[in-house]
Write a structure and sequence with these properties.
By secondary structure, the chain is an all-beta fold. The protein has a domain of 117 residues: Sandwich (Jelly Rolls). 0% of the residues lie in helices and 36% in strands. The strands form three sheets. The protein has a five-stranded antiparallel sheet with strand order 1-9-6-11-4, with no helix packed on it. The protein has a five-stranded antiparallel sheet with strand order 8-7-10-5-12, with no helix packed on it. Strand 2 and strand 3 form a beta hairpin. The radius of gyration is 18 Å and the shape is globular. The N terminus is likely disordered.
């Protein structure tokens, strides 16, 4: 007998196969090595369509296996680049009415894949250090951090959004 009241679950779509979240931009970064070391430009003020304005620059260190998530900003755009180690940066679009509402994007960024990822306001984001050494993530947000009134809205990293931080072997 068929139970018509039970709906089949929606087919699983891996985060990497979902559409790019509306407003998210990426830029491949170029490492320029020489005899003295290397240089990597991350964000330039003359990059039309990518650079909005300057708020501040900071670096965040994350130990192997640690998840730093979830939060979003109402006004701030983030510009993330991992300059040492590797992180899996995950974005979740929960914006009502967004053309990509419900989409999840994953980006493995860092030493092995130098990429800048621009995260627009109202998109939840976070990352997990997926390497064997600490990761260093540089952010150049469009707004300076306001200590007395932070533009930051947080959720717990596990069990609050439809994302599982577990490693998927396969």
């Amino acid at each position: 007998m068929v139970n018509d009241t039970v709906k089949e679950p929606a087919p699983y779509v891996p985060a990497g196969k979902q559409p790019r979240i509306d407003g998210v931009k990426t830029k491949a970064l170029k490492v320029i090595p020489d005899d003295r070391g290397w240089l990597m430009e991350i964000l330039r003020a003359d990059e039309a369509g990518l650079f909005e304005r300057f708020g501040q620059v900071y670096v965040s260190a994350t130990y192997p296996g640690v998840v730093k998530a979830w939060h979003y900003h109402k006004h701030q755009t983030d510009n993330f680049a991992c300059v040492h180690g590797m992180v899996k940066l995950v974005l979740v679009d929960t914006r009502p009415g967004s053309p990509t509402e419900g989409a999840i994007n994953e980006f493995s960024i860092g030493t092995l894949n130098p990429v800048l990822v621009q995260v627009p306001p109202l998109v939840y984001h976070g990352w997990k250090c997926i390497g064997t050494e600490p990761a260093l993530v540089v952010n150049t947000p469009t707004e300076p951090y306001r200590y007395d009134d932070p533009d930051e809205y947080r959720l717990e990293p596990h069990g609050t959004l439809p994302y599982d931080w577990s490693r998927r072997d396969g």
